[in-house]
Design a protein that fits this description.
Elements lengths: L2 E6 L2 E7 L12 H11 L14 E6 L8 E4 L4 E4 L2 E3 L2 E5 L4 H18 L2 E4 L2 E5 L2 E6 L6 H7 L5 E4 L3 E6 L2 E6 L15 E12 L5 E4 L6 H6 L9 H14 L3 E6 L3 H8 L9 H6 L9 E2 L5 E2 L1
Parallel strand pairs: 2-3, 3-7, 10-14, 14-16
Antiparallel strand pairs: 1-2, 4-5, 6-7, 8-12, 9-10, 9-11, 12-13, 13-14, 15-16, 17-18
C-alpha cells in the first residue's frame, strides 16, 4: 500500500510513500512507519480515494532527496526534517511514529485555522443528547472523569479533542494521537457538542453549576489550547468565536463518587447504560434506563 487516505476532523489527508519496495527490508524503516500509521490511525483510514484532498504528505525513502534547512535562535539550532509547499509536505520515511504525529498535528492545526477549528487539551464523552467536553488544568481529573463515565457513555478522548464549527453547530472530533487511556476506540466521525464543563476536584460533594458570565471563560480555556506559535492567533480567534456563539458552559466540581457525578450530569444530558451502545452496534442489549434533565428515571 503506497498510498493511505485518512479522514481526521473532517479533513482528507493523502499519505504517499514515494518508492518501490526495497530489497533489504532491514535497512529501511519505512515499512515500520507504515505499520505504525496503519496501527495508530486505523479508525481514520478511508477505504477508497476521497473526492477532495485537503493535504498531502509525501514520504521519500532517502532523506537526501529532501532539501533540509536549519533554524537558529539565540541559544539553539534546529534541523527541519520536512519542507512545506502550500498543501504539501515532503519528508522521509525513516521517521518514528512520534515524529509523524508532530507533522500530522501541524497539518491539522493549519487546516483547522482555515476552517473555524481548534485543538483543545481536554477529555470528552458522548451521550445520547451530544458530547460533553471536560476542560481543566493538569491533574484536574480529565482522565478520572472518563473512567468514571465509561459504563454510561461512549468515551471520545482523555487528553485532546478537535472542535469545528459546521454551519451554526459545533462538533467534537477524536484525535489519532496516543493518550493516557488506550482502552477505547478512536475513529473518524463527528459528535455534536452538548456542553463544556470546566472541572475541579472536590473532597466534599459533586456539584454542577451553569456559568452565566463569559468574562473569564476565554482566559481559562485559552490556557488549554494546543497550538504552535504560527497558528496561535488563528486558534485564539476560533476559540473566541466559539465562546461567543455557544452558551452551554458549566463549572463541575466532582468527587470520585460515580453516582453523584451521574446525578449532576443528568441535568444537562441523558444518562444511559452501556447496553445502549451495545444495541447501537447491532448486538443484543438488555433494557436501558434514561434520565431526563430533572433526573427522573424513564424506561
Amino acid at each position: 500500500m503506497n498510498i493511505i487516505y485518512l479522514n481526521i476532523a473532517g479533513f482528507n489527508l493523502k499519505i504517499c510513500f514515494k518508492n518501490k519496495k526495497p530489497r533489504n527490508l532491514r535497512y529501511y524503516s519505512s515499512y515500520s512507519l507504515r505499520t505504525e500509521i496503519l496501527k495508530y490511525y486505523k479508525g481514520f483510514i478511508l477505504k477508497g480515494k476521497p473526492k477532495v484532498i485537503h493535504f498531502t504528505i509525501e514520504l521519500y525513502k532517502s532523506p537526501f532527496q529532501i532539501i533540509f534547512k536549519s533554524v537558529q535562535d539565540k541559544n539553539n539550532k534546529y534541523l527541519l526534517y520536512y519542507q512545506e509547499r502550500g498543501n504539501l509536505i515532503q519528508t522521509f520515511q525513516h521517521l518514528s511514529i512520534i515524529e509523524f504525529n508532530l507533522i500530522s498535528k501541524y497539518v491539522l492545526q493549519k487546516l483547522l485555522s482555515l476552517h473555524k477549528g481548534l485543538i483543545l487539551h481536554a477529555s470528552a464523552a458522548y451521550f445520547p443528547r451530544g458530547s460533553v467536553i471536560f476542560i481543566g488544568r493538569p491533574n484536574a481529573g480529565k482522565s478520572t472523569i472518563i473512567t468514571l463515565l465509561k459504563n454510561v457513555s461512549l468515551p471520545l478522548a482523555d487528553d485532546s479533542v478537535f472542535i469545528r464549527q459546521i454551519g451554526r453547530d459545533f462538533y467534537c472530533y477524536q484525535t489519532p494521537f496516543v493518550e493516557k487511556i488506550n482502552w477505547f476506540q478512536k475513529k473518524k466521525g463527528r459528535y455534536k457538542i452538548r456542553a463544556i464543563c470546566l472541572i475541579k476536584k472536590s473532597y466534599s460533594s459533586t456539584k454542577l453549576e451553569k456559568i452565566t458570565s463569559k468574562t473569564n471563560i476565554l482566559v481559562k480555556i485559552s490556557n488549554e489550547l494546543w497550538s504552535d506559535v504560527k497558528h496561535s492567533s488563528s486558534q485564539l480567534l476560533s476559540l473566541t468565536r466559539f465562546i461567543n456563539s455557544f452558551d452551554e458552559f458549566y463549572l463541575l466540581r466532582f468527587t470520585k463518587n460515580g453516582r453523584e457525578l451521574l446525578e449532576q450530569l443528568s441535568r444537562i444530558t441523558f444518562i444511559i447504560t452501556a447496553d445502549f451502545f451495545a444495541k447501537t452496534r447491532g448486538t443484543t442489549a438488555s433494557a436501558t434506563i434514561i434520565r431526563n434533565t430533572t433526573g427522573t428515571a424513564l424506561t
